[in-house]
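Problem: given the chain below (518 residues), write out its structure.
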Amino acid sequence: MTPDMYMGLVTIHGTIMVFFVLTAGLSGTFSNLLIPLQIGARDMASGFLNMISYWLFFLSSLIMFLSIFVHTGMASAGWTIYPPLSALPQAMSGSGLGMTLWLVSMAIFIASSLMGSLNYIVTVLNLRTKGMKMTRLPLTIWAFLITAVIGVVSFPVLLSAALLLIFDRSFGTSFYLSDIFIQGEVLHYKGGSPILFEHLFWFLGHPEVYIILLPALGITSEVISTNSRKPIFGYRAMIGSIMAIAFLSTVVWGHHMFVTGMNPFLGSVFTFTTLLIAIPSAVKAFNYITTLWKGNLQLNPAMLFSIGMVSTFITGGLTGLILGDSALDINVHDTMFVVAHFHLVMGISALFGMFAGVYHWFPKMYGKMMNKDMGYLHFWITAISAYGVFFPMHFIGLAGLPRRYYSNSAFPMFEDLLHINKVITVFALIGGLAQLIFLANFFFSIGKGKKAVQNPWRGNTLEWTTPVKHMHGNWPGEIPEVHRWAYDYSKTDENGELWGGQDFTPQTLPIRDGEEEF
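Solution.
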């Protein structure tokens, strides 16, 4: 593998995972599946807009995939595509046609994302069934709604950054370029600044972390409450923390830029806002733990992945305290410590939330049950491998090992870290192979899995009142009316007996005499 190929693969890996797998896989897939079902709607507000959003996403994915195979090389400026490598077609082999296709693909992806987000917001606000007040919405819907709002606010800024980059590349403008020399040649660009691009990119880049994370957190809330057989602890605090995270995510982007020559006072402001976001994040973590405490835990694969998500969210978040402090970040910026941090808190946490959602709602998607034993095997190998990869990576980062380097042979001081890199590689390969277990389980269960009953997890939310067999409009006859919130689990009467002799109370069940509503 050549250095150019290595940098290209790093770029495409980051782009596909952040935008096309985690953003689309969580916000796109689960929002479209669950929003109509959980709010009591026949369909999304605009099926036409949904269709356009899907096909634009498909086109964007196709262009990004094809860009890997262009003869001049795939985009190679890192997934953050900083100028001048991304702004000058002649800078390197990966700055040519591959980079142009990357920008076109992302512009189409952003258009798709905006259409989807607007559709989600309108659907949640306008199409809730009778009785479904905002305070009765499941936390999944709150997470999808706020995620869509973040996307509408921040994605247009990335689109503007990409358009200005296209102007610099193709029309001779100088938004991001100034005083550029290539092989002794002085280029004509004057007055631009690559720092401007960083500001525009990270204004989307950091909210993007929560565009990915919030749906996973919402899924985790639903799965943990259902499989603990307990009401979610601090429902209103969870909603407040989602809103606080959404707001704060738009005022912390500067912590990615502490080493750009930023004014130290401005750095202290971004340090303060960054550390402030730890408060709502901690609220969510403690509420998950309190919900689990003394619950009647059903440790199925979905529950294990949700608990694993809470674990990686906490461990990855703790290292964020170091990177969010301008004085400490300088020492580990652009080292493998950063890679370990964001892969744990964003990548692995979001993937665990996605897996939890697939295992939990698979019966609703396909009318079949996934194999539980294969799910357990998938979880344990994946969880151990994830920590096996990213836990040691923190230490080689603290030792100073830089990220995105094809080879460290020019730095003999890092030779002692080579054996740790080998351990990381072994765990990465094992973790990658473990996903074959999931894929085998997924596709086998679609065809040969055990048939699901209507409400296999004994859940309260509306999707479990729909027929097992899919139908247009979701419900035959009238849409059910909602009478209570989504988390009335293990509710007892004045004698301490379970209401109705069961540990769940569907949202469609009217409030009984003498029963207190949440």
